Amino acid sequence: MSELLPRPFVFLRHGETFYNRAGLIAGSPDVPLTAYGEFQAREVSATLGQRQWSHVAVSTMFRARKTARLALPDSELHLYAGLRERSWGELEKTPIQDPMPYFDDLEQGESWAAFQGRVLAVLNELLAHFECPLVVAHSGVFRVICNVTQGHPYGARIGNVAPVLCQPPASGQGRWQLTAWQR
Predict the structure, then answer these.
(1) d(Cα 138, Cα 61) in Å, to the nearest integer?
(2) CA 24, CA 66: separation in Å to the nearest integer?
(3) pTM of the model
(4) Which of 51, 72, 82, 141 is the S-S candidate for 118 at Cβ 3.0 to 4.6 Å?
(5) Rama region for 36: left / alpha / beta (φ>0; ψ in -120 to 50; rest)
C-alpha cells in the first residue's frame, strides 16, 4: 500500500543530535541527543504533555525514545521498529545533500521502496486503531509522509522537536495538510 489511511495524527521528530548539528546523514547509527536536543524535548513537554494521546508510537532508536521520554514523562510509550530511520549505507556520516538521493540505489543501504513500505505499514496500523496518535520518529519517516501525502519527499527539512499535524483532506479530495501543531 502506498497511501495513508485518511485519519489525522501528529508527527514529532526527535531532538537534536550531533549529526543534525553538523549537517551529516545519520540514518542507522543509534546516536544520542545533544544537551540542546534534550532541552528541546523537555520544552515541547509543555504543549504535548497537556494532551491525552490515544497512543504514543515511538521509533526504537535511542534518539526518538529519549525525546519521547523527556517530552511525555507520564505517557505510556509504544516502540515500533518499523519507524526506525532509513539506513543510508555508504552515505552514512557524510554531508546532507541538496537534494537528497531518496530514490537512488544505495550500496549497503535500504531502498526507498523497502523503507517507505515498512513505515507505511506501521502508520496505517496505527491509524486503523487509534484516533489521532502521536508518532515520534525521524526526518526520513516524515519524508515518507510527505511523499505519500504531497507527491514527493523534497522540501524544507522538518525541525527537531517541531510537532506537525497531519490531516487528510476533509472531503476526501485534494492533498493532506501538514501544519505546525498547536494545542
Answers:
(1) 9
(2) 20
(3) 0.97
(4) 82
(5) alpha
Largest CA distance in the chain: 44
Q: How many CB atoms lie within 10 A of CB 72?
A: 22
pLDDT tens digits for 90-128?
999 999 999 999 999 999 999 999 999 999 999 999 999
- Spans of all domains in the chain: 9-180
Place of cell 505519500: 148
pLDDT band at 1 (very low <50, low <70, confident <90, very high): low
The rounded distance, in Å, linking the Cα atoms of 45 and 157 is 22
Q: Report pLDDT digits (tens) over 15-30.
A: 999 999 999 999 999 9
Rg (CA), the chain: 15
